[in-house]
Write a structure and sequence with these properties.
Layout (H helix, E strand, L loop, with lengths): L3 E3 L9 H14 L4 E4 L7 H11 L4 E4 L2 E2 L5 H14 L4 E6 L3 H8 L6 H18 L4 E2 L4 E2 L15 E3 L4 H10 L2 E2 L6 H18 L6 E10 L3 H12 L6 H10 L9 E3 L1 H14 L3 E6 L5 H13 L1
Parallel strand pairs: 1-2, 1-12, 2-3, 3-5, 4-5, 5-8, 8-9, 9-10, 10-11, 10-12
Antiparallel strand pairs: 6-7
Helix pairs in contact: 1-2, 2-3, 3-5, 5-6, 6-7, 7-10
């Protein structure tokens, strides 16, 4: 898996799918070989990944990320396998635990047992993807046998989890193929994420997991202005408990210090620190995502890495 980028929808596009497919095609022309899509309330990331991957052959597509709530794994599995078949093996499923307050606002309900639900969700997906069958009854999720669960051409599906806490990392190491942390800096990866998830995977007899670090990025000759812009864009995350913990663990005062900003040479050096810390892959999340020129500049830079 090469260094990838997050694609952002143009809020002014007359057709969301056409716009995202066109963006993906242009990114591929500029050398990008992996794109990631977030789950929005106004589009479905797995469906969009399938359409993009089918339209741009050879481009890796993934979700970063689809919350597991309120989705049952028997719904997620056929969606993911359909996307894998449509992209001819170039799809990656990125999952997240979600957040209680956004869930309450969106669905009128929340699911409190996050780690237990993650474990059971991944257990069902692992069974379907690895064996083509499932028979599971848990405290949070059940999936009984009786109908086909394998989509021809749809397996295997690599599964990654946006896990940053110790319990989530342990479950991810046992049952998934790696983690997709966002705003987890080099120190956090080296001292906490890598040893925690690697130990869990080894104890479960699984291969060493991938650590796909999602890094906010902005190319600019004016580093001070870029850093101020990053602070504005990333301030949203600082009150959120999970992000507050990783920011504190990193020993920085704010999320902006975890962004890779500046000249191409400077950004390249900052990204290398993530790889040196144990990240196996990088995903650049453009901060100036509403600026088409800035987005293309970042895509071209990514394609050169």
């Amino acid at each position: 898996m090469s260094t990838g980028v997050v694609l952002f929808a143009d809020p002014h596009a007359t057709n969301r799918v056409d716009d995202m497919v066109a963006q993906a095609g242009r990114a591929y022309e500029l050398g990008v070989r992996q794109v990631w899509l977030s789950q929005n309330n106004d589009h479905d990331a797995i469906a969009l990944a399938a359409l993009i991957g089918a339209a741009v052959p050879g481009l890796g597509v993934g979700t970063a990320v689809v919350p597991i709530n309120p989705r049952h794994p028997l719904i997620v599995a056929p969606l993911a396998q359909t996307a894998q078949a449509a992209t001819h093996g170039n799809f990656s499923l990125g999952l997240g635990l979600g957040g209680h307050e956004p869930e309450r606002r969106a669905f009128g309900a929340s699911w409190s047992n996050s780690i237990a639900r993650l474990r059971e969700h991944l257990t069902v997906l692992r069974s379907i993807f690895d064996t083509g069958a499932v028979d599971f009854c848990g405290t949070e999720i059940s999936a009984q046998p009786g109908w086909p669960v394998r989509v021809p051409g749809g397996a295997p599906v690599p599964v990654y989890v946006a896990a940053m806490g110790p319990k989530a990392l342990q479950v991810t190491g046992e049952l998934a193929d790696g983690t997709l942390p966002y705003l987890a800096g080099p120190r956090t990866i080296a001292e906490f994420i890598e040893p925690t998830i690697a130990k869990s995977a080894a104890e479960a007899g699984r291969p060493k997991p991938r650590i796909i670090a999602q890094v906010p990025a902005l190319l600019s000759d004016d580093t001070d202005a870029a850093r101020n812009f990053a602070a504005e864009q990333l301030s949203f995350y600082e009150p959120i408990p999970s992000y507050r913990k990783v920011i504190a663990r990193e020993g920085v005062t704010g999320a902006a210090e975890l962004a890779a900003v500046g000249s191409p040479e400077s950004v390249r050096r900052q990204l290398q620190r993530y790889l040196d810390a144990g990240a196996t892959d990088l995903v650049l999340s453009g901060l100036a995502w509403t600026d088409a020129r800035a987005a293309e500049e970042l895509w071209a830079f990514t394609g050169s890495l």
